[in-house]
Request: fold
Amino acid sequence: MEQNQRIILVERPDGMPDETHLKMETAAIAEPGEGQVLLKTIYLSLDPYMRGRMNAGPSYAPRVELGDVMVGGAVSQVVASKHPEWQAGDFVVTRSGWQSYAVVDGNRLRRVDPKLAAISTALGVLGMPGFTAYAGLLNIGKPQPGETVVVAAASGAVGQVVGQIAKLKGCRVVGVAGAEDKCKYVVDELGFDACVNYKSDDFPAQLAAACPDGIDVYFENVGGRVLSAVIGLLNDFSRMPVCGLIAQYNGTELPLEHNELPKLMRAVLTHRVLIRGFIQSDFQADFPQFLRDMSEWVRNGDVKYREDVVQGLENAVSAFQGLLVGRNRGKMLVQVAEDPSR
Amino acid sequence: MEQNQRIILVERPDGMPDETHLKMETAAIAEPGEGQVLLKTIYLSLDPYMRGRMNAGPSYAPRVELGDVMVGGAVSQVVASKHPEWQAGDFVVTRSGWQSYAVVDGNRLRRVDPKLAAISTALGVLGMPGFTAYAGLLNIGKPQPGETVVVAAASGAVGQVVGQIAKLKGCRVVGVAGAEDKCKYVVDELGFDACVNYKSDDFPAQLAAACPDGIDVYFENVGGRVLSAVIGLLNDFSRMPVCGLIAQYNGTELPLEHNELPKLMRAVLTHRVLIRGFIQSDFQADFPQFLRDMSEWVRNGDVKYREDVVQGLENAVSAFQGLLVGRNRGKMLVQVAEDPSR
Reply:
C-alpha cells in the first residue's frame, strides 16, 4: 500500500539547514473529509522565503512549528474529492508542503490549466515568483523608459522575470548574479543589457561601469555586498522594492564590519530614495491582471523562463541548500511524481 | 558710512565648523541693479542642512564655494527697490545668506505679512521647517487616527511641528530629544503623549515602553542611535519620512560598530516598511495649502512654537555649533538687526 512521504521540521537550524533539521518520514495517506480533497504532489516549489519559516522569531508569516510538515507551494493532481468544485484528475496549485500526498481544504486551491502552459509554471513564471516580480516592479519600482534597472539574483525565479518586464518597459537592465554562466544566460537568452558577477573582486567597479547613468530602480532580494555596492550609485528619486535578503538568511549574528546604515541613510536623504518592503500578497488585487499579462508574454516569447528540476522528494533538502547558496539555475523545483500532463 | 557684515566660507570643515572655516568680514553695501532690491537682514535662519552645504561632496543642493557668503534663509526689510513689486519698508523672506545686507533678484522674494504673525515665523513654523514637517508627515507618513508617531529631534524647528500635526490627526505622539527640559517642553507645552531622552543609558528600553503598540510613523531627521532603537519597534506597513540626519553630519568616517544595515533591511522586508527621503521643495505644490492650514493652526493655538534667538551676526557661528549638538531650544534664529515690526 502506498504511503505518504513527508519532510518534517524537527529542529530549528542556526545556519544552513540539513537532514538533522528536516527529516523525511513515512505516514499513512489520510482520507479527505467533507469539503476536502486528496492531492498527489507532482512539483514542489523551493523558495528562499522558506528559510525564514524555519526560525523561531517572528516574520511576515507564521513560523513552521517543530514536528510539522515543512510548508511550501506545490502543483498537484486531485486523487479524490469531497468538494463540489474538484474532480479526480484536476491539476491545482496550493500550499500543501513538502510531502507526496496531502489532504487540503477544497476552497484553498487554484486551478492550473495544462493547455495554457506547462503546469510547473504555476510555481514559477505564472505563480508566486512571477507575481512577486510583476507586483513589486510595477507598483514600487515604477520603471520608466530609458531608466536603469538593476536586478539582484538576476537568474533566479524572481530576478529573471523582473529583468524581462523591465526590458518590456524600455529600460536598460543590468543583472547581478553569482556565476559567469548565470550572467551569460540573462544577457544572451533573456536580453538583459549587462550582468555583473558579485563574486568578482572588483564587483563595485564593474557594477558602476555597467550603470554609467546610475541606478533608478534596484530590485532587492539579496542584501549583503550587492546592496552595499548599489548604495553609491542610486540616482535622485530612485526606488528600491525589497522582497528578499537571501544573503542574510543564514546570518546568525550581525557581521562585524563597518556600520553601513549611515551610508544608506545618507543616500536616502541626499537622493530622496524610496525603499519599500513587500510580499506579493500585499498586491493580491493585481493577480488576475498579472495572469493575463504574463500568460500572453510567455505565449508570445516576450518572457522566457528556466527551471531547475531535481528528481525525488528525498533530494529536497540538498536542493534547498543549493538554492540558498545559488547553485540552482532558474526556478528551483522538486519533481515528486511523474507529470501526467506532459 | 554703514558697511555690509558677512560670513564667508573660507575652509571646508572636517568635523564641527568654527571661525577658521567661517570668517566674518566687512564689505561695501552693493547697489541694486535693474530688477533687484537691496535688503537689510533682520532675522537669519540657522538650520542643520547648512552643514551639508559646507562639504565638498555632492548633496541634494549645490555646495557653497570657498570664498562665498554662507547660504541661508532670512527675513529682511526692503531698503531700496528697482523692482516694480517691492517698495522700501516691505518685509520679505528669501535666501540672502549670512550677511547684514544683500542685493537680491526681486523675483526671488516671498512677501511676509507682519499682521499675520511675527515676521520671524516665516523662517520657522510658517516657513521652511514648518513646511518640511507638514509635507513629509502628510505625504509620506500619512498618519492615521490611533497610530503611534515617533518624532526625532522633537523640540527642534521641524520636530515640534511634526508632533503637533500628528496630534491634530489623532495619533499617539512620542518625542525623542536630548535633554530633560526639551522632553518636558514637548509634553507639557506642545501636548505630546510622551518624550524619551536619547542620552539615557536605557534609551531603547524607554522608547519601547513609550510605544507599547509599536511605531507606525517614524519622522527621521537624526539618524544614529535613535534610528537604531526605532528599527526593532517598526510595525507592519510603517512609514519613515527622512528629511535629515543631524547625528551624522559631522561624522567624517563610518563608525566602527556592528553593521546595522542588515537589521534595517530585515525590518523593511519583514514589516514591509516604507522609507523615503525628501526635501520640502519636492512638495512645492502643497505650499499654498500649507500656509493656509498652518496660519490657522497657529492663530487658533493648535500649533505652538518656540524660537531661540541669538543676538548679532557675530554670534552666528557659535549658535550654529550649538544647533549641531542640540543646545538650541526651538527654532534657531540670529537677530541681525532690530525688528521694526514689533
User: Anything to note?
Assistant: Chain A has nine helices and 15 strands.
